[in-house]
Write a structure and sequence with these properties.
By secondary structure, this protein is of the alpha/beta class. Helix content is about 30%, strand content about 25%. A 7-stranded mixed beta sheet has the order 3-2-1-4-14-15-16, sandwiched between helices. A 7-stranded parallel beta sheet has the order 5-6-7-8-9-10-11. Strand 7, helix 3 and strand 8 form a beta-alpha-beta unit. Helix 4 packs across helix 7.
Length: about 450
């Protein structure tokens, strides 16, 4: 039986690396996985000596938060170049959030028309009178929900009060979907910012000082208590603290469905980087201390991290320039195109197996968002989504980012990397050749949640 194509290289599975292996594809799915002599195929793609990982699943990105639905096209190009074949896009789009089934279906149309890679979608609710939309969003194919304990915009990115949050959790629990939470305490942050401005402290480090660890853990405790009360799967959308993951484990041990993800910046960036990068290093939650980064690697080693994501937010360069007031800069980082090279580099620098990358950056996020068994792994019958990494000594250059011109900036510009993405395959077709995005807008497609089974451990 001849396959359509066979891709040869060192195949990275969650359980280890299959050296001199291959992945055979028929149509859009994986039809065979093996080692040694290659089976007959219409096309042989030889990546000998390179690593073949499952295409990454980025469980946290904001394609539409900066420029609206048109941002899908550029951000998805960056994803393809970064080895990301499926992303889960946040609902806080400009000028309106994805708060009901009609808006959701409109966004799906944009994905199917403009995206270069496959995309699943979060839903959210309005600040007032939004609860009745939850069931419809789930039926429309949302993979998860996103709510916030902190308000960036009363319409687009609101704070949901505790009474409404509890009822939302009850209704979301009935759908079987996960609810991710932006976890910062509003009162602590607003009070700290007001005090800083009153004393004239608007320099970069004050972004971290006005969002102290306590503002995260206070929010974590509140949402986890609500998880215990309602039975909902409640997930920290971005923990910058190891303690957040410890708390999730503690509540799990008491019977709650609680979890948390870590954005890749919290595995490598520190307060010193915030001072160095100023606005281009501003994200929420902020970078923490070098000691906290080490603690984060400790909880990773202990298996307490749900998955690793990017929180990619491609603000235009002008919104990130620091002119003396760090509070005036937009919060969010680009991170999609650097995702695979950086994660591989961090693991190699610490002598950790790259099989962790296949788990934390592909299989586990796919499971959390109900996209497994279609996405997230090199397994028979799964979509043939692959990320090919070339090992070596490279330097990340923001000028190479595949996106609109004003989104070509990166906090990792100039960083030494020990890998680069040599090729990306989406459903068996090459969409990145190491130099150019080969996919066209519309190559990517919306991926609805595949089932209502939950995964939180």
């Amino acid at each position: 039986m001849q396959f359509d194509r066979v891709i040869k290289g060192d195949v990275v599975l969650p359980e280890g690396v299959m050296e001199r292996g291959y992945v055979a594809i028929r149509g859009e799915v994986i039809a065979a996985i093996g080692q040694g002599a290659l089976p007959p195929a219409a096309e042989i793609l030889d990546h000998s000596g390179m690593l073949i990982l499952p295409g990454l699943v980025d469980g946290h990105m904001h394609t539409g938060s900066a420029v609206g639905f048109p941002g899908i096209e550029g951000a998805s190009m960056s994803a393809a170049a970064g080895g990301v074949t499926t992303c889960v896009d946040m609902p806080y789009d400009v000028p309106r959030a994805t708060t009901d089934a009609a808006i959701f279906r409109e966004k799906v149309e944009w994905v199917n028309r403009t995206s270069h890679m496959d995309m699943a979608l979060y839903g959210t609710i309005t600040k007032h009178n939004g609860l009745d939309a939850i069931a419809g969003l789930a039926e429309a194919g949302a993979c998860s929900f996103k709510l916030s304990t902190y308000e960036y915009d009363a319409t687009r990115f609101p704070r949901i009060d505790n009474t409404t949050m509890v009822e939302a959790f009850r209704r979301i629990a009935q759908t079987g979907l996960m609810v991710g939470i932006h976890n910062e305490d509003q009162e602590i942050v607003e009070g700290a910012i007001a005090a800083a401005i009153a004393t004239g402290r608007t320099d970069p480090i004050m972004h971290a000082r006005t969002r102290p660890p306590l503002c995260e853990t206070m929010a974590d405790l509140a949402i986890f208590e609500m998880a215990m009360e309602t039975g909902a799967h409640v997930h920290i959308a971005h923990s910058s603290l190891a303690r957040g993951l410890d708390l999730a484990e503690m509540f799990r041990n008491q019977g709650a469905k609680t979890s948390g993800e870590v954005c890749i910046q919290y595995l490598c960036m520190t307060e010193e980087d915030l001072v160095r990068l100023a606005g281009f290093g501003k994200c929420n939650p902020p970078f923490r201390t070098a000691e906290e980064v080490e603690r984060m690697w400790g909880v990773l080693a202990a298996g307490k991290i749900g998955y690793v994501s990017t929180d990619h937010a491609p603000w235009g360069r002008s919104k990130k320039v620091y002119n003396g007031d760090i509070f005036a800069c937009g919060a969010g980082l680009t991170g999609m195109q650097s995702f695979a090279p950086l994660m591989a580099t961090l693991l190699l620098e610490r002598g950790l197996p790259l099989s962790l990358m296949a788990s934390l950056c592909a299989e586990r996020p796919a499971k959390f968002h109900g996209l497994y068994p279609k996405k997230g792994a090199i397994r028979l019958g799964f979509d043939a989504d692959l990320c090919v990494l070339e090992r070596g000594d490279f330097v990340f250059d923001e000028a190479d980012i595949q996106d609109r011109e004003d989104a070509k900036w990166s906090p990792y510009h100039g960083r030494a990397m020990r890998a680069r993405v040599a090729a990306t395959y989406l459903r068996g077709a090459k969409i990145w050749d190491g130099q150019s995005v080969l996919a066209r807008p519309g190559t990517g497609q919306f991926v609805p949640r595949q089932h209502r089974e939950q995964f939180w451990a």
